[in-house]
Write a structure and sequence with these properties.
single chain; Carbamate kinase; two-stranded antiparallel ribbon; 10 helices; 45% helix; globular
């Protein structure tokens, strides 16, 4: 068998395996939190944008919420502003919030939307006055200009989906006084998924998934097992804490499945969504 014939056979096998999932998730909403290495690597960026367009083309409705931690770090360092994280959440001063907003809304959000459009997709940039995230200051923790999500306005998201567009949402929340609040991207994604009663939420990360006490990846777990792992905390460090916390919360609020996926793997979202094995941790009710 020639190389071209082998390639054709592999493609046919992939399509055959994907078909039942395409049918299953047709017209369903899948919320994706995009961040980590997948956002920094140029090849992964292109693959991810093209995969979103493919999902939309076959009738799945992706809703994208992006992060931007490394890019914010660089901008803060360029302005000689030090920063720290508490339980994976960036402590945000008044001096920092304008920089955080500009990086997320004006730079990252636009770059993602432009790349999706490059592959033929249509986008709706939900930032500023169009942001669906309503927030209040989180007074329980000493985190400064960090917000707690008060509610999600679904109208603009649903209108975007109805018009054939992919919503690209920045994790900046807005108070009733029109003040910007820094919102953890994982929490924002989970709140949006819960408000939409999404079929799935997929959280991209820079590790292979949730790990057990021996450091081995857990491929599947139920809600009860996820809560037990979160309570133990020995293997839940840094950015994984808000991911697992958010996943548990949105499953309890009506989202059917949550996936914590290795964004360093090319086409990881499609593999997790449209194949039998996947590449991350699948948490179900």
């Amino acid at each position: 068998m020639s190389v071209s014939e082998k390639n054709a056979l592999n493609i046919s096998k992939v399509l055959t395996e994907a078909l039942p999932y395409i049918r299953k998730f047709n017209n369903k909403i899948v919320v994706i939190k995009y961040g980590g290495n997948a956002m920094e690597n140029k090849v992964l960026q292109k693959n991810f944008a093209r995969d979103l367009v493919l999902m939309k083309t076959v009738g799945i409705h992706p809703v994208l919420i992006h992060g931007g931690g490394p890019q914010i770090d660089l901008e803060l360092k360029a302005n000689n502003i030090s920063f720290e994280f508490i339980d994976g959440i960036r402590k945000t001063t008044l001096e920092m919030i304008n920089i955080v907003q500009k990086v997320l809304d004006n730079k990252i959000n636009k770059e993602i939307a432009d790349l999706i459009q490059f592959w033929g997709g249509k986008t709706s940039r939900l930032i500023g006055k169009n942001s669906p995230i309503k927030a209040i200051r989180d007074c329980k923790k000493n985190l400064g200009e960090v917000g707690r999500i008060k509610g999600i306005t679904k109208k603009n998201i649903l209108a975007s989906l109805k018009s054939g567009k992919i919503p690209v949402i920045s994790p900046i929340g807005w108070t009733t006084e029109k003040k910007a609040m820094n919102i953890n991207g994982d929490f924002a994604a989970c709140s949006i998924a819960a408000s939409l009663k999404a079929e799935k939420i997929i959280l991209l990360t820079d590790i292979s998934g949730v790990r057990d006490l021996q450091g081995k990846k857990i491929s599947t777990m139920n809600l009860k097992e996820a809560k037990k792992i979160l309570k133990d905390k020995k293997n839940i460090k840094g950015g994984m804490y808000p991911k697992l916390t958010g996943a548990i919360d949105c499953l309890e609020k009506g989202v059917k499945n949550a996936h914590i996926v290795d964004g360093r793997v090319p086409h990881s979202v499609l593999i997790e969504l449209l194949t039998d094995k996947g590449v991350g941790t699948w948490i179900s009710k």
